[in-house]
Amino acid sequence: MNLNVVVLLLIPPSDLRALLAFRSALHEPYLGIFNSWTGQDCCHNRYGVSCDAITHRVADINLRGESEDPIFERAHRTGYMTGRISPSICDLTSLSAVTIADWKGISGDIPECITRLSFLRTIDLIGNQISGEIPNDIGRLNRLAVLNVADNRISGSIPKSLTNLSSLMHLDLRNNLISGLIPTDFGRLTMLSRALLSGNRITGRIPESLTKIYRLADVDLSGNQLYGTIPPSLGRMSVLSALNLDGNKISGEIPQTLMTSSVMNLNLSRNLLQGKIPEGFGPRSYFTVLDLSYNNLRGPIPSSISGASFIGHLDLSHNHLCGRIPVGSPFDHLEAASFLFNDCLCGKPLRACLKN
């Protein structure tokens, strides 16, 4: 028997039916990416579809609207697709990855039934117009390592079951309409390395449990409605390198622990922070970015800041700081914009201080 015939006999007809139903719910008018979706073989030269070599079941749907693939280079454009994600995708029961990203026009909800696809490791739906809520039972996907629904119109709250995703490493919910609280047991996501929740309507406090995630390297909670104080334990996280809390309603004082932590990119701007900039900078203080602008900070710039091993970009503008700007590194390469709109700072690069 011909090998191709053998392969066709091995491919379940349910996979072909599911793919055809999935395809019929989408409209891509410019690139013709679905032109190759012909014939009875799901696994042969079907753009964006990969199959398991042993089972011949569909294992991967990878459709990106922004790509260096020749089909995009020939058209000299990025992709645009409308329609919705059909629930028929849930009949592809061997799927391990679903990437339907950056098509700009795909709308509708995330099918609830997607939580039945127990082999899923990746859900990447970034850059569409998808609405509705994150499926309530998302926590059933115990193999899921990547959940990316950024740049959509997702609403509702973060499902409580999400903290059951024990394999999750990358969580990206940026730029949606998500509201409610960050779950208090967020720290159960012990494999998480990136938590990107910016540009939503999330309220409440930063949960203390988040600081117990050992692998967490990048936390972006900016552009929400968070309040309360900054947990000092954030500064004790051993691999945290980027912390962005810009544009919230966080109050209280800046924890001293953040000045000598592993954090290199620290943005606390546009909050309600009070008190003084903490002393305690030293050789372990290494900042590519240190942005404390648009707060209610008072007092002098701490002299110990000159002891930091490196500060690339520093912004202390729009506070109530007063006194002499320290001399030497890092101040010798900073411009006036870093210090403007304070109460009474003086010295280079601002006006000279009055002599006593």
From TrEMBL:
Gene3D superfamilies: Ribonuclease Inhibitor. Residues 1-18 form the signal peptide. Residues 13-52 form the Leucine-rich repeat-containing N-terminal plant-type domain. Transmembrane segments: none annotated. It comes from the Eukaryota. The keyword Acyltransferase does not apply. This is DNA damage-repair/toleration protein DRT100-like. It comes from Raphanus sativus (Radish). The gene is LOC108829092.
